[in-house]
Write a structure and sequence with these properties.
Layout (H helix, E strand, L loop, with lengths): L2 H5 L11 H9 L10 H4 L4 E6 L5 E8 L2 H19 L10 E9 L7 E7 L5 E8 L2 H13 L6 E4 L2 E5 L4 E2 H8 L5 H20 L10 E8 L2 E8 L23 H10 L2 H21 L1 H12 L6 H15 L10 H20 L2
Antiparallel strand pairs: 1-2, 2-3, 3-4, 4-5, 5-7, 6-7, 8-9, 9-10
Length: about 350
Amino acid sequence: MSSEEKLMSKKKPAFPLNEMLNIYLKEYNRDIKIPIFYDDLLRFQGSITVYDKNDKDTLWIRTYYSEFDRIEIDLSLKKIYTILHSNGNEDTIPFLNVDAIDYCTFGNSKPFRIKIRNILNDNFTYFYVKKTDASRVYGLELEHMLSPYNLNFLVYKDTLIEEHIAGIPGDDFIKDFLPKCTSSEQAQLAKEFVKFNERSMIRLLGDMRSYNYVVVPTHDFDHIVYKIRAIDFDQQCFEGKLKVYNLQFFKENYKMVKMVTERLQENSVDQYKIEERSIVAKRMISFQDRIEELIECMKNDSISYPENIEQLKSEVGNYTNDLAFKKCNNMGEILETILDFVKRNYLDISTK
């Protein structure tokens, strides 16, 4: 059994959206009627393997449909694009083309990746069509509120539409780009890795192996600034092992963890953790009502197994020395207690 199999429990199921969560999504304009469902895209009649520029199998296949289905599917996907990125105005549809519908055979969600191109200027973008999963929806909403990044997604019945998050996949970055980074770039990247890890732990986003996040380089004057963003959210508040929410325990992140130990002193690591907790606390205050509504949905939902809940509340309680975790009955209450713990500590410090 691999270290990942020991760390992760049995395969996570997809959890249905309960009525409270559906009401929440309608309130915040996430639940919008769309003209096609995930299952409609499964009607493809054939496919070919998609290879990268080095002729390596990407684990995506390019799908093909009958002529009748393709006309209907293309029009529906263009309409989804206008709803996701605009106000649903269909005047732009004649200028859009569906260049590819790719299907991923790897992972839990088995998503479709849609490539939409503007035929007037060849600009293109992607979005994803997936089956709804309450864990993923909670993860997307928490990322939207507690991270530096806004997320755009839609839910309708059993179908989830997600915008593409641009960046260099973490595994590709570690293999191809990290060795070329200068010492100062590695130090800045190490700082971001520490902050990303802290943010993931605070909001209980698990399984952040290198292929589940992207590195985003931005040119700023005479240097490059690196940011790290999660791209997979289906392990939100599911696992019972606290280590699953800590990036350093995955072998895929070993080189990033090694870089942190080489480039940052321990007091710097502690400083960046405190900075991230403070930033998250400030975001919680800004989104207070909305976060409270989402947590209330989660507290009335079932998104994990009883044994995972018991294990996690015990491990988090031991980690924080906070007896409040013993009273938690579900993942929503555990997350609420963690966020209260972070906010309380921030307010205690800021009012001194």
